[in-house]
């Protein structure tokens, strides 16, 4: 209908008024305004029914659609989202399919549209990436269960009786299986080591552990950031992978799991510590055995995870070094003795043996397990560690 772009309402009003005057031929008026007889009769009828308001453009949206969701399906989607606030459209759709849906299952985009209209979608702003500095890393993509484990502390919160509750979390990066979600009394090395011993006994040893640069996983003043805990991991044959400082997104899967925990456990603070741990245990079971994950084809983690064939032996490991090295044990203050000289290396290595490889009469290369830590200058009796950011 070629009404003029300017003053459409004026054009239609003028046309209808001239028709109603009865002084001009209807066919000629339609030809003058460039419309068909059918369109002309339509606007005349609308004017009779609704007056000038009827001459405005009407919505072309159909009154009903054969594919429009019924009220029960919409309510079911919203109920699922309220039951699992941190789950996205893909997960909720997979759960609905598993539980059974009468009729055709809505598409993922339909789930997103329903959730968005219901105000149940939180839109996040992405931060620009930052430059990375040098660090001790073993960055690989997990290709099998127990290839890479990730570890961190979930930020603490208070239970209703004002007890501080701070869980240690350990996760298999390949299957997304949560191996540990256990509150600890503190973050000291001995406390965290006890938790790892329990997990190692139950699930075996991983090939790599990924962590941030905070205690007790790393120590800023130690060569290569080694801490007592990470030095112990190395003696067990576990490689280390540290994410860059201030880049939690480099351990994004673990951080996402913590966000889920915050929404589904932390915000419903329990009466006391034991009750909160019981609630966390239920959440872990749901996360591992019921919650589908997009990254693993909407499967549940327990369907992919299996214990490691590398079994944990609690006895202290005797470290061996290649020919050409001589060995010294690190003493109580992190020192070794060479030619009656006491040279500080690192308290993180206390009780362990390090390998020393002569480079020339005054320089010794220092190794611990598979890592080169730096050099000792015999002329000054000083250790010069390799530095990292």
Q: What's the SSE blueprint?
A:
Blueprint: H1 8-21, H2 26-33, H3 37-50, H4 71-83, H5 89-99, H6 108-117, E1 148-153, E2 157-158, E3 164-165, E4 167-172, E5 178-183, H7 189-203, E6 208-211, H8 228-235, E7 239-242, H9 252-266, H10 273-289, E8 326-329, E9 335-338, E10 341-344, E11 353-360, E12 363-368, E13 371-377, E14 382-385
Parallel strand pairs: 1-6, 6-7
Antiparallel strand pairs: 1-4, 2-3, 4-5, 8-11, 9-10, 11-12, 12-13, 13-14
Helix pairs in contact: 1-2, 1-3, 5-6
Features:
Nucleotidyltransferase, domain 5; 17% strand; five-stranded antiparallel sheet; Arc Repressor Mutant, subunit A; 389 residues; five-stranded mixed sheet; single chain; alpha+beta
Give the gist of this structure.
This protein has helices spanning 8-21, 26-33, 37-50, 71-83, 89-99, 108-117, 189-203, 228-235, 252-266, 273-289, and strands at residues 148-153, 157-158, 164-165, 167-172, 178-183, 208-211, 239-242, 326-329, 335-338, 341-344, 353-360, 363-368, 371-377, 382-385.
Rg (C-alpha, Å): 34 Å
Helix content: 25-40%
Q: How far apart are the termini?
A: 70 Å
Task: Give the ordered list of helices and strands.
Answer: HHHHHHEEEEEHEHEHHEEEEEEE
Globally, the shape reads: elongated
Structural class designation: alpha+beta
Provide the CATH top-level class of the largest domain: Alpha Beta
Mean pLDDT: 87
Number of strands: 14
Strand content: 15-25%
CATH fold type of the largest domain = Nucleotidyltransferase, domain 5
Please give the CATH architecture of the largest domain.
2-Layer Sandwich
């Amino acid at each position: 209908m070629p009404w003029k772009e300017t003053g459409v309402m004026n054009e239609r009003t003028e046309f209808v008024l001239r028709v109603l005057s009865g002084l001009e031929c209807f066919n000629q008026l339609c030809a003058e305004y460039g419309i068909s007889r059918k369109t002309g009769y339509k606007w005349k009828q609308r004017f009779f029914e609704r007056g000038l308001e009827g001459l405005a453009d009407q919505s072309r949206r159909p009154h009903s659609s054969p594919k429009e969701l019924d009220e029960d399906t919409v309510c079911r989607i919203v109920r699922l989202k309220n039951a699992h606030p941190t789950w996205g459209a893909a997960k909720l759709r997979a759960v609905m399919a598993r539980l059974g849906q009468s009729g055709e299952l809505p598409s993922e985009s339909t789930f997103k549209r329903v959730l968005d209209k219901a105000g149940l979608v939180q839109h996040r702003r992405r931060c620009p990436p930052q430059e990375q500095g040098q660090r001790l890393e073993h960055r690989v993509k997990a290709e099998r269960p127990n290839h890479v484990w990730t570890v961190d502390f979930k930020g603490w919160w208070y239970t209703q009786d004002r007890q501080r509750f701070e869980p240690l979390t350990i996760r298999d990066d390949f299957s997304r299986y949560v191996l540990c979600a256990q509150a600890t009394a503190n973050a000291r090395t001995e406390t965290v080591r006890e938790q790892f011993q329990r997990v190692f006994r139950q699930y075996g040893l991983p090939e790599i552990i990924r962590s941030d640069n905070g205690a007790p996983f790393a120590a800023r003043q130690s060569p290569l950031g080694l801490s007592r805990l990470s030095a112990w991991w190395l003696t067990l044959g576990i490689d280390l992978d540290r994410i860059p400082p201030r880049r939690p997104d480099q351990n994004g899967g673990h951080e996402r799991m913590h966000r889920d925990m915050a929404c589904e456990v932390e915000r419903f603070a329990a009466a006391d510590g034991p009750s909160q741990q019981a609630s966390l245990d239920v959440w872990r079971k749901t996360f591992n055995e019921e919650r589908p994950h997009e990254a693993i084809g909407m499967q549940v983690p327990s369907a992919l995870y299996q214990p490691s064939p590398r079994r944990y032996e609690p006895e202290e490991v005797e470290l061996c070094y290649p020919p050409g090295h001589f060995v010294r044990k690190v003493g109580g203050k992190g020192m070794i003795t060479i030619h009656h000289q006491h040279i500080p290396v690192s308290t993180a290595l206390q009780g362990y043996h390090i390998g020393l490889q002569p480079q020339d009469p005054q320089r010794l290369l220092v190794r611990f397990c598979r890592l080169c830590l730096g050099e000792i200058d015999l002329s000054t009796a000083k250790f010069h560690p390799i530095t990292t950011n």
